Amino acid sequence: MKKEKNKTGGKPPKPDKATHCIMVRFNSEEFTRFLTMYEQSGVYAKAIFIKSRVFGAEFRVLKIDKTLVDYYTKLSALHAQYRAIGVNYNQTVRELKSHFSEKKAMALLFRLEKQTIELIELSRRIIALTNEFQQQWLPRLT
After folding, report:
1. Domain extent at residue 95
2. Which of 9, 72, 84, 104 gives the lowest tally of CB atoms within 10 Å of its CB?
3. Are 37 and 29 in contact (CB under 8 A)?
4. What is the pTM of this model?
C-alpha cells in the first residue's frame, strides 16, 4: 500500500509572496558608499535596506561619539577615586590623632588640609570643564 503525502505539513505559504527580483550593479566607489550607508543604518539585511531606500522610508543614522563615552567613563572613574580618597582621609585623621603628639598631628593635618584645598580646586575645574563640554557637545546630539 502506498502512503499518501500530507499536504497540510510544512511551512505555511505567505499571502503576498515576493516573486520579482531586480539586480543592481555598483562600481567600486558606489559600492563603498552603499556599504557605508548600509552599516550606518543598522538594518540587519541589505535587501531590507534597499527596499526602504527605494520606497522612501525614513533613513536615520545614529553615531556614537567615542570621545564622549571615554570622557564620561574617565569622569566616573575619577568620582570613584574621590570616594576612596574620602575613606583614606578619615582613616588618616584617626591614625594621626592616636599615634602622634598633638603638635605633630596638627602640623601633618595642616599639610593634609592644603592638599585637600588643591583637590577641591581641581574638582571645581573639572566641574567647569564638564559643564563647558556639555554645553558645547550635548545640543549637537539631540
Report:
1. 66-141
2. 9
3. no
4. 0.45
- 91, 112 contact by CB (below 8 A): no
The grid coordinates of residue 137 equal: 557637545
Instruction: Verify that 129 and 117 share a domain, yes or no.
Output: yes
Q: Cα–Cα distances in Å, from 42 out to 18, 33, 48, 119, 131?
A: 23, 15, 11, 44, 32
Instruction: Tell me: do 122 and 106 sit in the same domain.
Output: yes
The cell numbers describing 56, all together, are 522612501
Q: Can you give the length of the chain in residues? A: 142
Question: CA-CA distance, 47 to 78, in Å (whole number)?
Answer: 46
Render pLDDT for 105-137 as a digit per residue (tens, 0 to 9).
Answer: 888 888 888 888 888 888 888 888 888 887 876
Average pLDDT over residues 84-107: 84
For 130, other C-beta atoms within 10 Å of its C-beta total 13
What residues contact 61, with CB distance under 8 A and at least 6 apart?
40, 41
